[in-house]
Amino acid sequence: MFGLFKRKTDHFFSDAEKTQIVEAIQRAEQRTSGEIRLFVERRCRFVDPVMRAKELFYVLKMTETAERNGVLVYVAFKDRQLAVFGDEGIHERVGSEFWNKEVGKMLMHFNRENYAAGVVQIVHDIGEALTAHFPYDGTTDKNELPDDIVFG
Q1: Do 39 and 72 touch, CB atoms closer than 8 A?
Q2: Is residue 73 domain-resident?
Q3: Span 10-60, pLDDT tens digits
Q4: Fewer CB within 10 Å of terminal CB in the chain, N or C?
């Protein structure tokens, strides 16, 4: 009976896919001081997924990076919505056009039901942008946010 109330959001990816996504985040972050997080839930509580991503960005305390260079990738599977939200440090450098282009790439993967591949691709691309604008500095850089997938 109690099993009916369990969240099943974390079943959108297989264990192997979850590992692949976390490893992509870690690889991307090894070359930058920037931070990338993935939040996955069944339904988007807002009409606009960007607004939900923005809310989660603050809930996850992603504004607390030293260079304001955190990026949240947001996916609501059941509602088929997604968004990318970057903090002011990275957004000032790449702009809305970059985020929109990346969402488009992810949608192409998602439309072919290649969900993990779409997430890995966007994490890689965001990592490249972060590396270009916030390169890794071994003397000062630290992992400021967890690399795990957050399931809501």
Answers
A1: yes
A2: yes
A3: 678 999 999 999 999 999 999 999 999 999 999 998 789 999 999 999 999
A4: N
